């Protein structure tokens, strides 16, 4: 993939418009950070119960999902578990859509996610 754009720039567009515009503008992929006003795309049918339809739409348009962006913050003790759940939800999306989950310097997801959770739990203990 060479060039993608983020849906953060077009919060009101529906999935068909995103795909149509991506193709029209010559993009190779899309970074999903919200869709039609819902920031957590892992909550939407297009990425849950209807994910196969979304995957086919993107494949037909020769587009990839470059990444799923989130609002996870590592500084909030009060929201730590919520943020870990969000990381897990996005990791599942990445598996489903065959999207890279992790920075290249981080180990494979099967190793990295448990390490990340362990790190966050240690951080939680230190903050407490």
Q: What's the CATH topology name?
A: TIM Barrel
The radius of gyration is: 16 Å
Could you tell me how far the N terminus lies from the C terminus, measured between alpha carbons in angstroms? Answer: 43 Å
What fraction, in percent, of the residue positions are helical?
A: 40-55%
Silhouette = elongated
Number of helices: 4
What is the number of E strands?
3
The fraction of residues assigned to DSSP E strands is 5-15%
Order of helices and strands: EHEHEHH
- Kindly report the spatial arrangement of strands forming the biggest sheet: 1-2-3
CATH homologous superfamily assignment: Divalent-metal-dependent TIM barrel enzymes
- CATH architectural type: Alpha-Beta Barrel
Q: Give the low-pLDDT segments.
A: none
Q: For the residues shown, what is the average pLDDT?
A: 85
In CATH, what is the class? Alpha Beta
In total, the number of domains comes to 1
Sheet/helix structural class = mainly alpha
Largest sheet: 3 strands, parallel
Compact summary:
This protein has four helices and three strands. It is mostly helical.
Describe the protein's architecture and organization.
GO terms for molecular function: isomerase activity. InterPro entries: Xyl_isomerase-like_sf. Keywords: Isomerase. The chain has 128 residues and is mostly helical. It has one domain: TIM Barrel, CATH 3.20.20.150. It is built from four helices and three strands, in the order βαβαβαα. The chain has helices at residues 15-24, 51-60, 80-96, 109-127, and strands at residues 4-6, 29-32, 64-68. A three-stranded parallel beta sheet has the order 1-2-3. Strand 1, helix 1 and strand 2 (29-32) form a beta-alpha-beta unit. Helix 3 (80-96) runs antiparallel to helix 4. The protein is elongated and about 50 Å long.
């Amino acid at each position: 993939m060479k060039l993608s754009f983020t849906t953060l720039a077009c919060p009101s567009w529906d999935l068909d418009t995103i795909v149509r515009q991506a193709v029209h503008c010559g993009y190779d992929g899309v970074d999903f950070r919200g869709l039609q006003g819902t920031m957590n795309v892992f909550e939407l049918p297009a990425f849950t119960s209807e994910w196969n339809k979304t995957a086919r739409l993107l494949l037909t348009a020769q587009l990839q999902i470059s990444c799923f962006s989130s609002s996870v913050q590592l500084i909030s003790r009060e929201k730590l578990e919520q943020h870990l759940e969000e990381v897990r939800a996005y990791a599942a999306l990445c598996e489903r859509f065959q999207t890279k989950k992790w920075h290249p310097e981080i180990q494979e997801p099967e190793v990295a996610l448990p390490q990340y959770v362990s790190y966050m739990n240690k951080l939680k203990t230190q903050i407490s």
